[in-house]
Write a structure and sequence with these properties.
This protein has about 160 residues and is an alpha+beta fold. The chain has a single domain, classed as Multidrug-efflux Transporter 1 Regulator Bmrr, Chain A (Alpha-Beta Barrel). Helix content is about 15%, strand content about 40%. A 6-stranded antiparallel barrel has the order 1-3-2-5-6-4. Strand 2 and strand 3 form a beta hairpin. The longest helix is centred in the C-terminal third of the chain and has 14 residues.
């Protein structure tokens, strides 16, 4: 039996823009998380078929913003074009941004953040503030598995 490694903790830099459609939740931070994130993702997964022009239903994008008191967390699909946004959902167009990226799993997200911030410090990268960007968690959904690949993207200056 082959053992699949999902928490590689490989770091790198990417530059990308995103067009997303999905739902959001706002909750107290940090005490409301990860429960709020799990809730919005599960609610959104029941509505995936309502989103038009999606690139993949197996890749869930979760951008978020937090000020240390509360956080807004999204569950979205990437789309080719933003149009026909379903009722109760919203569209996000995230501009071209340079991100520090790490690959981990849904069971090692905390460890992933620690390793990503350490790697950023070692390589002279500073987190960009929220004025035109935000961090993104990307979940690669798989059927019948407890551990899935997750990428964390952190905007950098």
């Amino acid at each position: 039996m082959e053992v699949k490694t999902v928490a590689t903790f490989e770091c790198g830099i990417i530059e990308k823009e995103y067009q997303l459609v999905g739902e959001s939740i706002t909750a107290n931070f940090p005490e409301g998380f990860p429960d709020a994130a799990i809730k919005v993702q599960m609610d959104f997964e029941r509505r995936l078929d309502e989103v038009a022009n999606w690139k993949s239903k197996q890749v869930l994008f979760s951008p978020y913003m937090s000020n240390g008191i509360f956080a807004t967390y999204f569950a979205c699909l990437e789309v080719d074009e933003i149009k026909d946004v379903p009722e109760g959902m919203m569209a996000l167009k995230l501009p071209l941004t340079k991100y520090a990226k790490i690959s981990c799993s849904n069971k090692t997200v905390g460890q992933g953040y620690n390793k990503l911030f350490a790697w950023m410090g070692e390589n002279g990268h500073k987190q960009k503030q929220y004025n035109d960007s935000c961090p993104i968690e990307i979940f690669y959904l798989e059927e019948d598995t407890e551990e899935e690949v997750v990428e964390i993207l952190m905007p950098i200056q």
